[in-house]
Design a protein that fits this description.
Length: about 375
């Protein structure tokens, strides 16, 4: 029995080595834990320093006023440029101008957007829309609630709006009249026919003023017996397709095709230009358009479109903000702020396209 005990006794060296190994493992583990903790603290400190540094250097300035920009979405490129001008001026005057439709889910009419703006108690409204009775009442309600209102491009003069920014109907008619005269020279018929495309919502008073101005220009050059026959065609602006369909109907009636088509907005201009190409009537129908994209400048240079009246869109947007700020600060602003326009014919279109090409070349 004693021999067995002696054989199973653990050597002294092994007995002393086991505690030392355990101690080393514990020490290593503790060291790793300390290093991880220190490293985590360092990383956390760096993140907090960066965050605090960003917070200290980045300041959020409180804006003085909140204006909203309300238009329909049928002439998107045109209104994009007007809004860009409004934003530019708003930044200079510590104002936030919001394009209301962009921040709402779903589609809303301009009247519905007006209600949203009024219920939100904004400081100012920049508005282009119909001038029906309901819209007039909404604008009057906004003004009654202390919200300043500027209408643009198409005035709603029956309302209590503070200012209209745009081109008045008489001046617009004079410009179109001058272009009609040029487009019909030399006269090739005893009696020419002119078709004027207007929005369905155009009021009778605005329509009559434009027509009066056009007739004044034409009658100064031609006797009454030679005056062209003028037809006004009102087109719905629910969407671009409605305009396209109505304008194609004009070109399909070849027996009554007009010699000149006058387009009162950019959508009508684009649709008329495309229909003239599709129906092989380029040159036979002189198109006088409104606004000018790069594609339209090329069409004018090629004389697919005879000419176009261009409105300074960004100036229009800047003028709206200026009018609202002036009324806010003084309680007064001009009831009408004109916007600069220019007539773009073949030579002007060529010059503008060359300038753009040179600028793009210099940028590269």
């Amino acid at each position: 029995m004693s021999d067995y005990i002696e054989k199973t006794n653990i050597p002294e060296e092994t007995k002393t080595r086991a505690p030392k190994t355990a101690f080393h493992i514990m020490l290593t583990g503790l060291t790793v834990m300390v290093l991880v903790a220190v490293l985590s603290a360092i990383i956390f400190s760096i993140i907090m320093l960066r965050f605090n540094g960003t917070s200290e250097t980045k300041s959020y300035e409180k804006l003085d006023k909140h204006y909203v920009f309300i238009t329909d979405d049928t002439e998107k490129e045109f209104w994009d440029q007007v809004y860009a001008g409004a934003q530019e001026q708003a930044e200079l005057t510590n104002v936030y101008v919001e394009r209301l439709a962009d921040n709402l889910s779903g589609e809303y009419s301009t009247k519905e957007l007006l209600r949203v703006a009024i219920n939100s108690s904004v400081d100012g409204i920049i508005f282009c829309g119909n001038d029906d009775k309901e819209t007039v009442e909404l604008i009057d309600k906004a003004v009654e609630n202390g919200i300043f209102v500027v209408t643009l491009r198409q005035d709603i003069d029956d309302s209590d709006r503070q200012c209209f920014v745009g081109m008045n109907s008489y001046d617009l008619g004079i410009e179109y009249g001058k272009q009609i005269l040029k487009a019909l020279q030399p006269r090739t018929k005893l009696k020419h026919k002119i078709c004027i495309l207007m929005e369905e919502t155009t009021t009778e008073s605005r329509q009559n003023i434009i027509m009066l101005a056009i007739q004044e220009v034409l009658s100064a050059q031609w006797e009454e017996s030679l005056m062209p026959e003028i037809e006004i065609k009102k087109i719905r602006m629910d969407d671009a397709f409605s305009a396209e369909e109505a304008i194609r109907d004009v070109f399909m009636d070849e027996d009554n095709l007009p010699d000149v088509m006058v387009c009162m907005n950019s959508i009508y201009t684009q649709c008329t230009y495309q229909a003239a190409v599709d129906y092989n009537q380029v040159g036979d129908v002189k198109i006088i358009g409104y606004y000018s994209t790069d594609d339209m400048l090329e069409a004018i240079q090629k004389q697919i479109v005879y000419s176009a009246i261009r409105v300074e869109t960004e100036e229009m947007g800047r003028s709206c903000i200026k009018a609202l700020k002036e009324y806010e600060e003084t309680g007064y602003t001009n009831s009408y702020v004109p916007v600069n326009t220019m007539v773009i014919g073949k030579s002007e279109a060529g010059r503008m396209l060359n300038e753009k090409a040179e600028n793009e070349g210099a940028g590269n």
